[in-house]
Structures are given as C-alpha cells and as structure tokens.
Amino acid sequence: MMARTFAGVPEQVPAARAWTLKCLPAGCPRTADVALVTSELITNAVLHSLSGAPGGAFTVRVEVTAAAVEVSVIDQGPRPVPVRREAGASGWGLADIVARLADAYEATTGPAGRTAWCRLDWSSTAEVTR
Fold first, then answer.
1. H-helix or E-strand spanning residue 110
2. Where does the record place the Histidine kinase/HSP90-like ATPase domain (predicted)?
C-alpha cells in the first residue's frame, strides 16, 4: 500500500490525483475511472471536512492488487457547520460519481476523521503489468 498526505486546499486536488495515477500499474484498464473517483473523494474532503480548514490536510492511500485498485481518502472529519452549496453550483456529487463507477464504496467516520474508500475492479483477462 502507498500513502501520501496533502495540504487541504483546492490546488492540491490535481497533485493528489496525479500521484494516485502514478501508483497504478502500466496498462491499468480503469485509469480514467480512478482519476474521476479520486478527484471526487479528494474534492469532497477539501470542501466538506476540517481538512479544508486553514492548516488542514488529507491523506490518499492506494492499494493495487492483481484484480483491482482500492483508493482511500482520509480527512480530518466533518466540519461543525456543513458548507452550503451555492445556488447554481456544479458537480454531480460524491454518491453519483463514486457509486456509479466504483465496484464497492464505503465511508466511515471515527475519532481521527472520516475515511472514504472505494474499489475499482478490472477483468482478470486485462493486460496489467507492474
């Protein structure tokens, strides 16, 4: 498993996504899906958790197996007052994007923060090399 912590600012979303994609094996058949769900999980952490507060951070963990990739984003827990979405704000939302693309998804909240985890499977016949 590989893990890296990033500052909880919107400018780190592309850097965290790029790092996640570098963790994938050559020929990964779901690279585009991994990029999209990772962006959504990270953006959710920055916008809707204490990770997005001044000095906040989030951690991305990636675990690659022969049949799938698991991506986890660990944030610093929910904000005391949820951030309201501005009228006309864009975005499909966590549930729509991740639930539709991932083969498994779970979010848990504990004393150390919240973990949003998803798994994207690929066919055992796909050509994936390390």
1. strand 104-110
2. 10-117
